[in-house]
């Protein structure tokens, strides 16, 4: 039993991965009746009940949108047909589905990262576990209710999938409790903590001596000039590319992200790889560390954005309050709306 408990945090993410992989090809939704009948007979009441139906998963939806877009762009359509707005809408919907597919694949790979980092006792394992397990418990819960409704509709296959989901849900909770209560230290791959320092990147620290008073002004002017150049030579062309070449631009962005990710994985392997592990084990942990960095930077970005929005909202509210106070007490301004 003790050996099983030790292996459970390694095995439970793999069961979660099977559920995620299944959802890529099979999805469920609630179908409501098209009309409301006043008939109170038993067949009519059954017809009016919402039903859970099985439909294509994310991969099938993307395939359908691609085929629909190809049909819109076919030469068989009348020449005078104006479908540019429809094509743009379908292209953007397709990009949204592909972005969601990328998010699901990231979640899928995160399950393997959780298993690998626990097996090698990597120091960042608990950070990954605190994201994976709560999210998985939330994701699995609606799937359980869908299968319960399908069981009520006497779907035979739903009985087997429901048992599998219950088993996965139970071992997910159990594994998460074991990870939280685990008192053993996670000290593997400590060198990765310093992978972003200047020395590890091969750069020497910059000189901190202060110069003349003209140096900051010169730096500001250089920053303004670089901003103008980047805006005109980079941002505006990129905006026009994503507007007129939606699919090609999305593939280009995905290619750049993949290329940059491969660079970082090999860099982390070079900096933080441990000698007692082979090359592929170090690469697997490096990939897991890249996901950890994505999660950490993503949460920091979201938190910073929320703080900025709250700060700007507070300043704007304070400004309106001061204007209203001055108007009603001192009479220096006219109507507030004129401001």
UniProtKB/TrEMBL annotation:
Keywords: Membrane, Transmembrane, Transmembrane helix. The chain crosses the membrane at residues 7-25, 99-119, 131-150, 156-176, 213-237, 249-266, 299-323. The keyword Kinase does not apply. The keyword Transmembrane helix applies. NCBIfam families: LIC_10230_fam. This is Uncharacterized protein. The lineage of its organism: Bacteria, Pseudomonadati, Spirochaetota, Spirochaetia, Leptospirales.
């Amino acid at each position: 039993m003790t050996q099983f408990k030790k292996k459970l945090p390694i095995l439970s993410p793999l069961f979660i991965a099977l559920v995620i992989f299944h959802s890529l090809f099979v999805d469920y939704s609630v179908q409501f009746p098209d009309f409301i009948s006043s008939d109170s007979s038993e067949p009519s009441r059954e017809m009016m009940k919402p039903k859970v139906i099985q439909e294509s998963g994310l991969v099938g939806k993307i395939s359908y949108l691609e085929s629909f877009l190809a049909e819109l762009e076919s030469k068989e359509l009348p020449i005078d047909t104006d479908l540019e707005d429809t094509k743009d809408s379908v292209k953007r919907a397709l990009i949204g589905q592909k972005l969601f597919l990328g998010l699901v694949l990231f979640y899928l790979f995160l399950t393997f990262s959780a298993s690998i980092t626990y097996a090698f006792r990597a120091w960042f394992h608990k950070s990954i576990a605190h994201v994976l397990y709560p999210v998985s418990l939330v994701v699995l819960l609606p799937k359980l209710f869908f299968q319960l409704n399908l069981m009520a509709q006497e779907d035979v296959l739903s009985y087997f999938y429901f048992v599998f989901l219950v088993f996965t849900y139970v071992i997910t909770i159990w594994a998460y409790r074991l990870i939280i209560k685990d008192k053993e230290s996670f000290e593997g791959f400590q060198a990765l903590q310093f992978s972003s320092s200047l020395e590890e990147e091969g750069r020497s620290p910059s000189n901190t001596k202060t110069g003349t008073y003209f140096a900051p002004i010169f730096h500001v002017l250089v920053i303004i000039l670089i901003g103008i150049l980047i805006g005109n030579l980079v941002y505006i062309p990129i905006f026009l590319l994503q507007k007129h070449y939606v699919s090609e631009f999305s593939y280009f962005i995905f290619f750049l992200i993949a290329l940059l990710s491969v660079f970082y994985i090999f860099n982390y392997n070079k900096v933080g790889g441990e000698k007692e592990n082979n090359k592929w084990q170090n690469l697997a942990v490096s990939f897991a560390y890249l996901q950890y960095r994505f999660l950490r930077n993503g949460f920091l970005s979201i938190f910073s954005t929320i703080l900025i929005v709250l700060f700007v909202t507070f300043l704007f509210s304070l400004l309106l309050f001061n204007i209203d106070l001055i108007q009603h007490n001192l009479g220096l301004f006219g109507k507030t709306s004129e401001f």
